[in-house]
């Protein structure tokens, strides 16, 4: 490992440490992430040829075409990152439109309960189911918006929000369309839809249920439910009950339609999100057109043009910085080398290898980790490395569920962190060990299933 490579790793680790201690430094994590991005890629450009020869052995352009090649590499990574960012912005805007126009009010009434523990289980089950249909990112946004309608105490809501992260990641792990990593493995033909659902479903349930059982001990007493005030009623009275339900089904139903749209058109998911946003935007404009409100009227503040300005740009920029910094680690070969080293150290024990990869996925983005494993390990005709073999199914489980152990270990965690202002330190102190217990329990459950139920 060269000095330059070590320097890039040091910049990433220092940046990560500052993000982890945001509550102490009082420096916004988005600013640190952007500096990580610039620092890592600036160091990379000090001697890019060594990395081009390592990671792109087919490159023959020499020093003359080096800058053009690196620019293309960065643009490729930026394109992949941008699809995530546009998906995030679209999903956040859709949920904001539904929320601001009263679309979640009837869901609030359905889920209303005085028992804190009863609400916890309703939130857990609904999140788990939705994340298997939608992606865990969109599900987390939807559930946080619903929680804001149900729970006024921020300390209690932090507990519920933490369970949303765990349940969303667990629900996405067993579904071929529930998480980016399972989509990658499914599209590559390394797992099948039937195989991953049949064998990962129960471990995923276990990885959600056990943390929920522990977290319910943190909630005591009855829930203080705030009644919707007259002012709040007035704020949603612009639309009729039927229009509010139409907004809800166009928004949430549209989000459910996104994976179907992807399977039909084979376009990236963000295109489907933009389709839903466009349809919902037009629908609300048609509804507002009949209100005959003035330019300064209350109703105009809930139109999409106004709501777009409320998108949390700091969360978007944090995503940009983190994903692009991790892509630099991938381009210097660190992630691939790490995967190979794990395989050697643990002597091919795939339960340990994938288990460690899952822990690592809570530290760095799981997408490049899984991508590195896909390129590093060949598919075998039979055994653990075959299609639907132990390695690939465990990789889907571990990379998805493992991200719950740290709040910045998954897209769901990052979004919840931004929306609910949960600090890295609070989550690590109160939730990380709970998520780890569920994670290990799920692996043990999978081992039992493979060893005794599916043994040949």
TrEMBL record:
Per the record, membrane topology reads: Multi-pass membrane protein
Q: Taking every annotated instance into account, which residue ranges of this chain make up the domain Citrate transporter-like?
A: 16-386
Any single Pfam family the record assigns to this protein: CitMHS
Question: Mind telling me which residue stretches traverse the membrane in this protein?
Answer: 30-46, 118-147, 159-178, 190-215, 246-264, 270-288, 316-339, 351-373, 394-419, 431-449
Task: State the UniProt keywords alphabetically.
Answer: Antiport, Ion transport, Membrane, Sodium, Sodium transport, Transmembrane, Transmembrane helix, Transport
Location of this chain's protein in the cell: Membrane
Family in the record: Belongs to the NhaD Na(+)/H(+) (TC 2.A.62) antiporter family.
Looking up PANTHER family in the UniProt record yields: SODIUM/PROTON ANTIPORTER 1-RELATED, SODIUM_PROTON ANTIPORTER 1-RELATED
Protein name, entry field: Sodium:proton antiporter NhaD
Its organism's taxonomic lineage begins at:
Bacteria, Pseudomonadati, Bacteroidota, Bacteroidia, Bacteroidales
What gene name is given for the protein in this entry?
nhaD
